[in-house]
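Hi R.,

Here are the chain sequences for the assembly we discussed:
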Amino acid sequence: MARQRLLLGLVVALAIAAVMAIIQVPTRLGLDLRGGSQLTLQVQPTQEIPDITDRNMEAVRQVVEGRVNGLGVSESVVQILGNDQLLVQLPGISDPEQAERVLGGTAQLEFRPQKPGTEQQLTVENQVLQSELSELEALRAAQDNQDDGAASTPETIEQLSPAERQARLEALQQSVQDSEAAIANLFESTQLTGDKLEDAIARPNNAGTGWEVVIEFTSEGADLFADMTRRIAGTGRSVGIFLDNRLISAPSVDVEFAETGITGGGAVISGNFDAQAARELEIQLRGGALPLPVEVVENRTVGPSLGRDSIRSSLYAAVGGLILVLIFMVAYYRLPGLLADLALVVYALLTWAAFNLLGVTITLPGIAGFILSIGMAVDANVLIFERTREELRAGKTLYRSVESGFHRAFSSILDSNVTTLIACAALFWFGAGLVKGFALTLAIGVAISMFTAVTCSRSLLLFVLSWAQFRKPELFCPGLYQARS
Amino acid sequence: MKLSVIKQRTLWWTVSILITMVGIIAMGLSWQQFQAPLRPGLDFVGGTRLQLTRDCAQPQVCDTSLQTAQVREVLTPLGLEASSIQVVGDDRQSLSIRTKTLDVEQRAQLQDTLEEALGPFDPQSIQIDSVGPVIGQQLFASGLLALLVAFAGIVVYLSLRFQLDYAVFAIVALFHDVFITLSIFAILGLTLGVEVDSLFIVALLTIVGFSVNDTVVIYDRIRETIKLHPQMHIDEVVDDSVRQTLTRSINTTLTTVLTLISIVLFGGDTLKFFALALIVGFISGAYSSIFIASTLLALWREKSGHAIATPASDPLPDQPDSVV
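And here is the predicted structure of the full complex:
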């Protein structure tokens, strides 16, 4: 009996912990429930690059991520999918067209010389842009934190209402775009674009004090670059490196190159780079150097109010399903059915908590998987109680019937759950997106149901049996004595 | 009256074969119409589906309900008259339009034109599903692969836990369930225009997991009965085992189907047909476990001369649960 008490205590403790987890850790909702866009981008090989390598993909991912950040969506995700696809998730996006336009274009890297007489202006515009960017950063952080329930943001932002924050965010994005356009305007457009860049490599500099980025042009690019650098060497103006019309670096050229320009097709960009900044520039350059077109091959967008409707209807479905099953179990199995119902509620709590703690993103099929697992979770109990009834009919004592019901049903429970898990594993490995979500939620559900059906309902039953008033076989198997006589 | 699946096996097999035949015919007809055994949805053939709801918060926008003909008139100048148009929602204010795959510009143009003709739409309730043909093929290929791997995994597991012949007949029952579900949806596709999407593949895989689940419980009982009564004829073993597990089979299917009915009733459009597929599959799964997998096993053991398992030829390891 001491062991039952201990197990029962454990179950109660777990249930309480689960409730805490459900309250404390927010449930992560998929885009189909909260509204948003999910885009799949296909990276197309070209004549120059017929085979897309991992390195290419990483570079393209960086470029796309830069564009996504430009859209100003918080909690966006950019993932590499397979060999040549990118998955972009944009929660709560209000303008799917804009997103698709911005993400679908080819990265455009361009080297542009600064126009004469704009040195002052560049400094000023750059300062404006930097302050706008840092405020934007703070605002986004505030929004993310708001979702996470924690806060560590400047007070001025804290005081804004969500609507005001949203308005400020949009205004800032607009002025960032304006500033970027103003900066772009200070440079002359040229023919020296990314396809004329051969490679870019970040490396520690000779002095060993910092990092630098080596770039290398094609022969055609080398001539253009020499010409450009000759014109601005020693003037204090710089070579603007633009990616998607955004200035990513603006190195100046030393006066020693005023005669010939930087010839030979190679150059070194040095400055106050740390390893990370150098690496970032390298990837941006290489990404820009890749004239790899990306195409939006899949777009799934769900408006926020549609998502809310889905949540509501699936909540009804889950509660409805649970209630139907609870009623059935009590009506058919009486006392053990009631205890199984308790175990089922514990099961639902534990599973929900596990989703939150493991950070499982709940999608619509995921909810279906969860509801389904409620129906399944009962299966183990049905097996056990049917066994118990058989043993009772065979004339065994109540306690032994319950014990052997659990004992003998176990191999069936194990086998049947393992086969379901095998199907889940296949779904998880080969499925994508939503399918994965379903497989994961179903698998977690099955695993937890094994625990609750065997441990939780067993301890409950044996605990109840320690009271004489419950030790009546007819509470377990109605009509038992008629059947025997 | 006692149920004897062995005596009535011809009847049960006939039922299954009849349904299968109807399914084959339905799939044949589907093939003629859609070049596929089932009516393929957007996920598999690619295309763009746009769901828009008029913004009823604005005055006079929703005074009239939407008409399909009116929408088609709008689409014709854009060269999209072949699209399927549905007016949905209780108040007939939502549109679901399925076209060939549109790029951003084309989609924006379509939306603008619709807005001009029909009034403003609520951006909060927009739904866009645009799938390129490449993705469709990938989904199909990965789904098929997942199905095959699941089959293989289950055969290996059952061969290890039971014996190879058990595993083979469990797979036969599996094919039966998957095929029956396909048949029903081929019929639904022909009659009600129900399309299958990637969720349908998920449903099939779940059916695979569950159907075998049911079979395993009966097999487990057969194995146990053989061990307890090695001299019993296999027909009797199977009959007894099926009878003993029948209540459980029915009750488990019932509880699962109850939750699924809840999804059909309350779960919204996306999940409705997913749940329906599962209901068909699970009921078929219970049926095939009781009437197909077990009777085939009995027939096989009888024909191969293993109708009576003698203790010496029983290769099963001792299990603790055989001691009662």
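The mean pLDDT of chain A is 83. The domain at 33-107 of chain A is CATH 3.30.70.3400 (Alpha-Beta Plaits).

Let me know if anything looks off.

Best,
T.
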